[in-house]
Specification:
The complex is a heterodimer.
Chain A (H helix, E strand, L loop, with lengths): L1 H6 L3 H16 L6 H26 L7 H18 L4 H19 L2 H4 L2 H21 L1 H4 L5 E2 L4 E2 L2 E2 L6 E3 L2 E3 L1 H24 L2 H11 L1 H6 L4 H27 L1 E2 L6 H14 L5 H20 L8 H21 L3 H17 L14 H11 L6
Antiparallel strand pairs in A: 1-6, 2-3, 4-5
Helix pairs in contact in A: 3-9, 3-12, 3-13, 3-14, 4-5, 4-7, 4-12, 5-12, 9-12, 10-12, 13-14, 13-16, 14-15
Chain B lengths: L5 H18 L12 E2 L5 E2 L3 E2 L4 E8 L6 H20 L7 E8 L4 H11 L5 E6 L1 H14 L3 E4 L11 E2 L5 H16 L5 E7 L2 H17 L2 E8 L7 H10 L3 E5 L2 H13 L5 E4 L23 H7 E5 L12 H11 L7 H22 L5 H9 L2 E3 L8 E3 L10 E6 L7 E8 L2 H5 L7
Parallel strand pairs in B: 4-5, 4-6, 6-7, 7-8, 9-10, 9-11, 11-12, 12-13
Antiparallel strand pairs in B: 1-2, 3-4, 13-16, 14-15, 16-17
Helix pairs in contact in B: 2-10, 2-11, 3-4, 5-6, 11-12
Chain lengths: 375, 436
């Protein structure tokens, strides 16, 4: 039964995806400026997280250098769009391509190094990047940072104050960025979904499970790893370019190790080795802090300890999450689905934790999804 | 190989089309709040409630995280002044309400916070930090939102919406060199600088180089360090080898203390000239008060350290506004320890009160009205807590004056005055141009 579901999306899945798409499209009209800004950051981050999902989730190569590739994309956008005033139709793809090229150059190191060793090498990228960016003022503006171009196609730009009116419907600057990022995210998800069940994608998963076995079966390790790095970096580059463009001003210390760690956290929280995982994880990692903070009543009497409290709650939530649901948000959804299926079949799933089907199989496959470095 | 079939893509597209047409029935919640005219003929804008006669101001400040040591007291200073204003009947009858958000000193959080409150505030009373304020600069420019920028970065003084008080870092360094020249009478002293490798350090370096050039001093050594560096032996050694007699320190407090401590342990004791942010009372004692336990580096600091700044000495009763300041602090923030960020926040609130009063008197509290009031505010005396400011349409820094103090154990905030406000020729001539 699970095989069947994997090969072809069931009607229920198609319906659910369509429902999510509808919600995502309608969302800006139900949101205020703060919520919409947060949503834009989340959707942009989800594009980058999806990229890391390919590299770490599917190909099993842990990378803490994602911030570096985000930065490469951002600075490509800055040079082509900001310095040379080219259209976003050029700099946006170029941001992805330049980052992909850098990724492909880094990829071969993964042939010699694995697991934690690879993680340390990719940390090196972040440090090199930060030092280079701090000192090449022509590109990054030096340590003081630089401004980034708004997305512009010809005469139409997404600058602050821009409004698009479609039949009495006004979409502002935030909304325009939201839809642009949403379209890119949807295309990227479709691509990754297809990739995961194509030959190169299967090769990546084989490499993740056991490299030697994969290579014995005829998987070209070099090509698989390098392409995983390139695809991952491509999406990171696009995400970084959009991020910097939306934020309008970025200093080099923004591309820090912490940013990389947030992306790693996003794909793990969401559910590693899935298409929806990085997206759901981005919502948790990038939207939860501002939302938590906005829930706290901020009065003029200085809510100082409360602000610290939200950070603590955020940390505790993440720890609790992993303790109770290592499969991430996607794992949680599957668990709920199992409970529902169990009920509809008149069973009490809670009483049969070791029952034959489908729970143990699902548990097992989740186990397998956790790459060897995480064990 | 279950790849996506065209049919499901088509279904998705159809869903999208339906969604858009559904959305067309909804309402777009856009608009920066429309203006209106209240009773009494005052034109109002976002954040101005004519019924209750309340003006809401936004505060975007790091209230948690490492930079909260600056954000907390600065915000408290603003709260104190506005509480005093409200208690005395408000600004021409208008009460002030602060809407505070924690920026965490993070540009992304700052933009989110800004978007969250921009519709409900008349102006931003405080935006702390250079990278954070630059991230909201395009939004503020477009919405004509006046921003009280708590950052001495030279870049802000040329933006019409940015209301900055005090003196840019670059000018402080140029003025310190003017004072050294005045003291010795000849430019023979050997001068060096250790600066942080970021925008703050660059700004200090700019004024330092301008001053050296104007007064024909010898630049014997320059050294940089990265934020977070804990070993500064190489930098100190470089100064010592070059025989620097005055060393400018454009750093943060922990680093500045390390530099002085390293020098003392090697028997190298030049005059250390601290940029304002390099200094903190907490470098001297455990609780920042003279009653606290002295720190290991306190003795070295008290031997030969100057501190550059533009704020009055805490408790100096010859400053006209000091008595009122201390009385308000005692009444509204009794637990506040002497702190220069607190005083800065208080002075910033004075500037904003003057600005809002002018806008009210002009009968226009819309965004444009407040911006006009800021541009034509002219000279405003801030009780001597910081130098008087002068806002004109031609922009430029609010002040070009610097005060020099010396670290001393006995003084109330460990600082005793060395030179009152001074303004050298190099500082007068320092250019501020519009730049990213």
């Amino acid at each position: 039964m699970p095989r069947n579901r994997r090969q072809r999306p069931s009607n229920a899945k198609v319906a659910a995806t369509a429902a999510v798409a509808v919600v995502a499209v309608l969302l800006p009209f139900a949101m205020n400026a703060f919520q919409l800004t947060t949503a834009v950051f989340v959707v942009i981050a989800a594009i980058g997280a999806l990229g890391l999902g390919v590299l770490t989730g599917y190909a099993g190569q842990i990378s803490l250098g994602h911030a570096f590739f985000l930065a490469i994309g951002a600075y490509t956008a800055a040079v082509l769009g900001g310095n040379d005033h080219l259209t976003a139709a050029i700099w946006l793809p170029a941001a992805g391509l330049v980052a992909a090229l850098c990724g492909a150059l880094v990829g071969p190191t993964a042939l010699r190094l694995r697991g934690l060793y690879l993680a340390i090498v990719t940390i090196g990228l972040v440090f090199i990047g930060q030092n280079v960016f701090s000192n090449v003022a022509a590109i990054s503006g030096g340590p003081g940072g630089r401004s980034f171009p708004a997305v512009a196609f010809g005469s139409f730009n997404l600058d602050v104050g821009q409004q698009l009116t479609i039949g009495g419907l006004v979409i502002d600057h935030n909304g325009l960025y939201y839809y642009l990022a949403l379209i890119i995210l949807a295309l990227a998800m479709l691509y990754v979904w297809n990739l995961s069940r194509s030959r190169p994608g299967r090769a990546m998963q084989a490499v993740r499970e056991r490299e030697i076995a994969a290579s014995v079966m005829g998987v070209n390790l070099a090509r698989t790893k390098v392409s995983a790095f390139a695809i991952s970096s491509f999406l990171a580059g696009i995400s970084g370019a959009l991020y910097a463009s939306f934020l309008s001003f970025v200093t080099p210390d923004q591309w820090s190790l912490l940013l990389s760690v947030q992306y790693v956290a996003a794909i793990i929280v969401g559910g590693i080795g899935t298409v929806w995982g990085p997206v759901l994880g981005s919502i948790v990692i990038f939207a939860l802090p501002p939302v938590l903070q906005s829930l706290v009543p901020q009065t003029a009497s200085g809510g100082v300890p409360i602000d610290d409290l939200t950070s603590i709650v955020y940390g505790v939530l993440i720890i609790a999450f992993f303790v109770f649901e290592p499969g991430g948000v996607v794992g949680l959804a599957r668990r709920l689905q199992r409970v529902r299926v169990g009920r509809s079949e008149g069973r009490e799933p809670m009483h049969k934790p070791d029952g034959e089907e489908p729970s143990p199989r699902q548990e097992q496959s989740m186990e397998e999804r956790v790459p060897t470095w995480a064990k | 190989m279950g790849k996506v079939k065209l049919r499901s893509v088509a279904a998705g597209c159809a869903a999208g089309v339906i969604a858009v047409s559904l959305a067309a029935c909804g309402t777009g919640a856009v608009g920066a709040g429309s203006g209106g005219t209240a009773t009494g003929g005052i034109k109002t804008g976002p954040g101005v409630d004519a019924k209750t006669k309340t003006i809401s101001l936004g505060v975007l400040s790091p209230l948690s995280g490492p930079v909260a040591v600056i954000g907390d007291p600065l915000t408290a200073g603003q709260q104190t002044y506005f509480k005093a204003v409200n208690a005395s009947g408000g600004i021409n009858g208008w009460k002030v309400n602060l809407v505070e958000r924690d920026s965490k000193y993070d540009p992304q959080t700052e933009v989110q916070d800004y978007n969250q409150i921009s519709g409900q505030v008349a102006m931003i009373a405080q935006s702390l930090g250079s990278p954070t304020t630059k991230a909201i600069q395009p939004l503020a420019d477009q919405q004509k939102m006046v921003v009280g920028a708590a950052a001495q970065d030279s870049a802000f003084v040329t933006d019409p919406v940015m209301a900055v008080i005090g003196t840019p870092y670059a000018i402080d360094d140029a003025n310190a060199l003017a004072y050294i020249l005045k003291q010795s009478g000849h430019p023979n002293a050997k001068i060096g600088i250790i600066y942080q490798d970021d925008a703050y350090g660059q700004d200090g370096l700019r004024g330092y180089l301008a001053g050296l050039k104007a007064y024909h001093f010898n630049n014997v050594a320059e050294a940089t360090y990265q934020v977070g560096d804990t070993d500064l032996t190489a930098q100190v050694q470089k100064m010592r080898a070059a025989g620097a007699q005055y060393v400018f320190v454009v750093a943060v407090p922990a680093t500045a203390a390390t530099i002085v401590g390293t020098g003392a342990s090697q028997g190298y004791n030049p005059t250390w000239v601290f940029q304002g942010p390099a200094w903190s009372e907490y470098l001297m004692t455990s609780n920042g008060m003279p009653t606290g336990k002295p720190t290991p580096v306190a003795k070295a600091l008290a031997s030969n350290v100057w501190v550059l700044g533009y704020e009055a000495q805490w408790g100096n009763m010859r400053v006209p506004g000091m008595q009122q300041f201390l009385a308000n602090t005692k009444k509204y923030a009794p637990k506040q320890i002497p702190d220069y960020y607190y005083m800065y926040g208080y002075a910033e609130a004075q500037m904003e009160t003057a600005l809002l009063r002018k806008a009210i008197e002009s009968g226009d509290l819309s965004r444009q009205g407040i911006l006009n009031a800021k541009l034509h505010l002219g000279e405003v005396n801030l009780g001597g807590l910081v130098p008087p400011l002068n806002y004109t349409p031609s922009l430029g820094p609010a002040s070009r004056m610097t005060e020099i103090g010396k670290v001393a154990v006995g003084a109330p905030t460990f600082i005793k005055p060395v030179s009152p406000f001074l303004e050298g020729t190099a500082a007068k001539e320092l250019q501020f141009t519009t730049s990213g």
